[in-house]
């Protein structure tokens, strides 16, 4: 299980793949829509999508001649949200974080 978890984290470990996942978080998209949204070359997007598919992070659906990519499930979106929340918490001044915990009823030692 640890190896599979590490593989999933690997899939999330590059800025380009994260940009693609954030794009797909909004809605399923075709490669050309992803290219336009993230500003990468088509070949680079295709390569990153292949990695994300291999790691079971995204799914692909054929619609006529095109392929539409989507996040595999809501857990992938939750991983992205949690990573962002973590970074935002790190950027918040410690005194603000402490007062937030106190307002929520958590003890200051809980951090």
What would you note in describing this structure?
The protein has six helices and three strands; from the N terminus they run ααβααββαα. The protein has helices spanning 2-11, 15-26, 31-38, 42-54, 74-91, 94-104, and strands at 29-30, 58-63, 66-71. The chain has a three-stranded antiparallel β-sheet with strand order 1-3-2.
Can you lay out the helices and strands and say which pair or pack?
Layout: H1 2-11, H2 15-26, E1 29-30, H3 31-38, H4 42-54, E2 58-63, E3 66-71, H5 74-91, H6 94-104
Antiparallel strand pairs: 1-3, 2-3
Give a quick summary of the entry.
By secondary structure, this protein is an alpha+beta fold.
Average pLDDT confidence is 87
Contiguous helical run count? 6
Major sheet details: 3 strands, antiparallel
| Low-pLDDT sequence parts | none
Strand order of the largest sheet: 1-3-2
Total beta strands: 3
- How are helices and strands ordered from N to C? HHEHHEEHH
Distance between the amino and carboxyl termini: 28 Å
Helix content: 55-70%
Report strand %: 5-15%
Overall 3D form: elongated
Structural class: alpha+beta
- Write down the Rg: 18 Å
